[in-house]
Amino acid sequence: MATLLLIGVFVALLLIGAPIAVSLGLAGAAAVAVGLDLNSVGMIGTNAYASIAKYPLIAIPLFVLTGMVFDRSGVAGRLVVFAQAIVGPRRGGLAVVATLVCMLMGGMSGSGPADAAAVATIMIPSMMRAGYPREFSASVIAASASTAILIPPSIALIVYSILVPGTDLRALFAAGVLPGVLAGVAIILPTLLLSRRHDFGAAEEQQRPAFWPSLRDAVPGLLAPVIILGGLRSGLFTPTEAASVAVAYGFLVGLLVYRNMGWADVWKVLADSAETSAVIMVIISLAGLFAWAGSTLGAFDQAAQAILAVSGSGLVVLILVMILLLFAGMVLDGVSIYLITLPLLVPIAAAFHWNLTWFGVLMAMNIAIGQFTPPVAVNLMVTARISRVPMEATVPWVLWLVLSMATAMLLVILFPEIALWLPRLLGYRV
């Protein structure tokens, strides 16, 4: 009864439009009240607090702040010019530029929706002038921004490292690099083919920006992921300390190098990042309560046993898990999916002896696809709003990108070394 109540209240609240945090918290509290004793009810507040009272979680608000600082400091605009200097004028060139800039910005923000908003604001007007339909532009940028969940620093991978004992965040960051690049290539290829087939970008500027001046202007932004990953690799600082260094560097670039930010902008960035971080932390807190209720009641163990009973083949079970995560990614954000599903999926991964670093990256790739797959694709929602088109108008273009990205994910399933080669090369435990 309590297990059914846990799932039923959660689904019912989502269906009526309740926020994800409210749905998780009320479902967990209701299940505890019905299925456990009064002493357990008194643990609700303690468990909700314990879910966020973890030192590594400090990195999340700091990386959120980093992404907003680089967005406001004009880094995205300079990266666009630099990417145009690399790609040059060609059919589909601006769409490729948008993908490259999303990947670079993902190495600073760690958030797909933030990445999508920053790049769409700059790129969509330029792409419209060059002859790209709004629907196509919104689809490409939404798909490209999903690589932020793979390319470090990824907020979702930070949460995964905290929830899965024995995983090294540095190894997860390294493992996400090559799959993130592969995902970017999987977006670029159909983008070029569709652009040439439909003659998109016929009005693109024929003058390529000068390479060296554009590189010089983009260097401060390009150095951000180098500083983060280089510091982690050298052992100079921990992932949490890396987030602090990234924030300090972002303010340095915005205030002193590009000088696009004033003290009023600093206050606005701090306030906006605090609001975004508070939403994430509330979700994490109440999802922790949901996970504790499910674990205590045995709901996740029962569900895991049911999935394991479907087939004894690890590949079949993995495909079922991937389908489940894809549907979850259509309606939930990446952090929430990790928080809700990991108590269920970790025992399954252990039963089949899946490498947990590889599995974390696979989850990230799957959730990335969900971020631009309708009906409730969070990245596509952002870009569709900015381009002023209904989400359903993007479906003919999005489906090509979903298919291509799913093919990239299949390659990582079949060849785990795509994810594990780099962390092993760097000497991390995987």
From TrEMBL:
Q: Where are the transmembrane segments?
A: 49-70, 91-110, 139-163, 169-194, 215-236, 242-258, 278-300, 306-328, 335-352, 394-415
* InterPro entries linked to this entry: DctM (IPR010656), TRAP_DctM (IPR004681)
One cellular component term (GO) for this entry is: plasma membrane
Report which residue ranges the record marks as coiled coil.
none
Bilayer topology: Multi-pass membrane protein
Q: Name one Pfam family in it.
A: DctM
> What GO annotations for molecular function exist for this entry?
transmembrane transporter activity
Boundaries of each TRAP C4-dicarboxylate transport system permease DctM subunit domain copy? 7-418
Q: Name the UniProt key words of this record, in alphabetical order.
A: Cell inner membrane, Cell membrane, Membrane, Transmembrane, Transmembrane helix, Transport
Q: Where in the cell is it found?
A: Cell inner membrane
Major localisation? membrane
Q: Which PANTHER family match?
A: C4-DICARBOXYLATE TRAP TRANSPORTER LARGE PERMEASE PROTEIN DCTM (PTHR33362:SF5), SIALIC ACID TRAP TRANSPORTER PERMEASE PROTEIN SIAT-RELATED (PTHR33362)
Subunit notes for this chain? Answer: The complex comprises the extracytoplasmic solute receptor protein and the two transmembrane proteins.
UniProt similarity note: Belongs to the TRAP transporter large permease family.
So what does this one do? Part of the tripartite ATP-independent periplasmic (TRAP) transport system.
* Protein's name according to its UniProt entry: TRAP transporter large permease protein
Organism per entry: Tistlia consotensis USBA 355
